Amino acid sequence: MLSVQMYFIFCSFVVLSSFAQELRHKPVGTKPVRLFTDEDLAKYHGQEDGQPIYMAVKGVVFDVSSGKDFYGKDAPYNALVGKDSTRAVAKMSLEPDDLTFDTSGLTEEQMKSLEDIFINVYKAKYPIVGYTSRRILNEDGTPDKNFKPEDQPNFTIKDEF
């Protein structure tokens, strides 16, 4: 029987296999793409010394450990880590209701702010370690057959894998 993590790896392979031609050469030593469930991501909450600190924005999981003074234990932005905090980043908020991936109801200005921060802060500064499973899987864990990386905002296979 496959473990949950192996199932997610298998699902990511199925979804992304049609894009293999674009992945010409992967340097030796790079890690495979990882899919994070909400439970997986919650383990990287910045409260334990020596544990990586991860957060997601727009379904992209970043290792923000190098910014532990901002994201680590008792740090000002620790509320953002261990989850997909897309809405909070867009609104520049630390309110508990904003600590979610849900962008419904955001203004055009907030969406522009999200895009700017996503590109100029997170993508520019922190390594990508994976994606939230929500980005390419259905709620029941099956591959989303309608998911197409090329149709996703800021999902560039050559840049992100």
From TrEMBL:
<keyword id="KW-0256">Endoplasmic reticulum</keyword>
<dbReference type="Pfam" id="PF00173">
    <property type="entry name" value="Cyt-b5"/>
</dbReference>
<dbReference type="InterPro" id="IPR001199">
    <property type="entry name" value="Cyt_B5-like_heme/steroid-bd"/>
</dbReference>
<protein>
    <submittedName>
        <fullName>NENF protein</fullName>
    </submittedName>
</protein>
<feature type="domain" description="Cytochrome b5 heme-binding">
    <location>
        <begin position="36"/>
        <end position="133"/>
    </location>
</feature>
<dbReference type="InterPro" id="IPR036400">
    <property type="entry name" value="Cyt_B5-like_heme/steroid_sf"/>
</dbReference>
<keyword id="KW-0349">Heme</keyword>
<keyword id="KW-0479">Metal-binding</keyword>
<comment type="similarity">
    <text>Belongs to the cytochrome b5 family. MAPR subfamily.</text>
</comment>
<keyword id="KW-0732">Signal</keyword>
<feature type="signal peptide">
    <location>
        <begin position="1"/>
        <end position="20"/>
    </location>
</feature>
<dbReference type="InterPro" id="IPR050577">
    <property type="entry name" value="MAPR/NEUFC/NENF-like"/>
</dbReference>
<keyword id="KW-0408">Iron</keyword>
